[in-house]
Amino acid sequence: MKTMIFEVLEKLENQSTLEKSRKVDVPADERMLAITKETGEILNMIIRIKNAKNMLEVGMSVGYSTLWCAEAITENDGKIITIEQNPKKIKRAKENFQNANVSDTITIKEGLAMQILREFNLQEKYKEYFDFVLIDADKENVIEYFDMILPLVTVGGVIVTDNILYPEKYKEDMKKYSAHIRAVPNVRTITSPIGNGEEITIKLR
Predict the structure, then answer these.
(1) Which molecular function term from Gene Ontology is one that the record holds (predicted)?
(2) What is the Cα–Cα distance from 80 to 111, expressed in whole angstroms?
């Protein structure tokens, strides 16, 4: 399985590099907009350190970040629930998960993240359920996502948010996000310069 995962990751990395270099012309709604490889490696490492078993991802795209996390969480017999709205990206992600032989590990929730998170908050089973969360969705709603996700996270659970530092166009939204988190009494958070900047937050008692 490991070989299959890394083969798919390598193909996606090559595609992402081409997109970022503008060497291929990809419609805006089909661009990967993937995390960096370095971010994938740190996500993978955190999951291993935490021995995480239940992960939530908000913003799957074509599944590049999901695969980095799946490579680690499968060793713990863990599961990933990932949210994505774009049907074209969902189709590509399913193919990537199948090629990497991790489809059984990943459940895709198709639709608006805000609506799906509201539904999770109404279900008792998801209260303090997730021990690892990745937020990599629309930045204008990132504060609302965090507030809805926090009750779903276990004490000691980790929330990682991508694009804290880059691209520049997100900077104001992400500054507000970082300030918002720092005002929440039962979390501790740091900003890491890895990749496009990661806010790494732990839920305290």
Answers:
(1) trans-aconitate 2-methyltransferase activity
(2) 16
Q: How far apart are the C-alpha atoms of 73 and 50, rounded to whole Å?
A: 10
State the Cα–Cα distance between residues 140 and 21, nearest whole angstrom.
26
Helix (H) or strand (E) holding 65: helix 64-73
All domains in the chain, ordered by first residue? 2-203 (3.40.50.150)
* DSSP state, residue 132: E
The Cα diameter of the chain in Å comes to: 48
pTM score of the predicted model: 0.95
Distance of alpha carbon 172 from alpha carbon 4, whole angstroms = 39
Give the pLDDT of the chain (205 residues) as one tens digit per residue.
689 999 999 999 998 888 877 767 778 777 777 899 999 999 999 999 999 999 999 999 999 999 999 999 999 999 999 999 999 999 999 999 999 999 999 999 999 999 999 999 999 999 999 999 999 999 999 999 999 999 999 999 999 999 999 999 999 999 999 999 999 999 999 999 999 999 999 999 8
CB 198 within 8 A of CB 134: no
Single-letter code of the amino acid located at 135: I
Cα-based angle 51, 55, 61 (whole degrees, multiple of 5): 130
